[in-house]
């Protein structure tokens, strides 16, 4: 998730790094929307160059997070297929899934042991 920057007016690189105002052709005034639908829009006044840089950075961060999530999901699916083929243990599938859900749970042997007990009771 992108961290919201402090809403300060930026300096314009085309006006000797003075603050951008209505006289400048690059001046923009508007509102920013966040990923959180419950959050209110954030008003801004800034140089268009700074706005473009912020948007490119936000798009890059979203693309990176999406690639990371797809990679983690692919790994879980691959390990699950290996488990179905008998080439991996069910504990490894659980460990991969826990790594995505909460990395702090990965090394928690209690969850894996509890799951083993349920598997043996069903058989």
Describe the structure.
The protein has 123 residues and is α+β, with helices and mostly antiparallel strands. The strands form two sheets. It has a two-stranded antiparallel ribbon with strand order 1-2. It has a two-stranded antiparallel ribbon with strand order 3-4. α1 runs antiparallel to α2. The longest helix has 37 residues. The mean pLDDT is 76.
SSE inventory with pairings:
Blueprint: E1 11-12, E2 18-19, E3 27-32, E4 42-47, H1 48-84, H2 90-101, H3 109-122
Antiparallel strand pairs: 1-2, 3-4
Helix pairs in contact: 1-2
Major sheet, described briefly? Answer: 2 strands, antiparallel
Approximate shape: rod-shaped
State the low-pLDDT regions, or none: none
Radius of gyration: 24 Å
| Euclidean distance between termini CA atoms | 43 Å
Mean pLDDT: 76
Helix content: 40-55%
Side-by-side strand order of the widest sheet: 1-2
The chain-level structural class is alpha+beta
Task: Give the SSE order as H and E letters.
Answer: EEEEHHH
**DSSP strand (E) fraction?**
5-15%
């Amino acid at each position: 998730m992108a961290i919201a920057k402090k809403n300060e007016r930026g300096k314009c690189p085309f006006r000797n790094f003075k603050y951008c105002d209505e006289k400048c052709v690059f001046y923009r005034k508007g509102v920013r929307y966040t990923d959180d639908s419950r959050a209110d829009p954030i008003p801004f006044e800034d140089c268009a160059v700074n706005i473009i840089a912020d948007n490119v950075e936000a798009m890059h961060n979203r693309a990176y997070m999406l690639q990371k999530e797809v990679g983690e999901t692919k790994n879980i699916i691959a390990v699950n297929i290996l488990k179905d083929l008998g080439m991996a243990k069910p504990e490894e599938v659980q460990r991969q899934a826990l790594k995505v859900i909460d990395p702090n749970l990965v090394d928690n042997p209690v969850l894996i042991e509890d799951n083993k007990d349920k598997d043996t009771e069903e058989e």
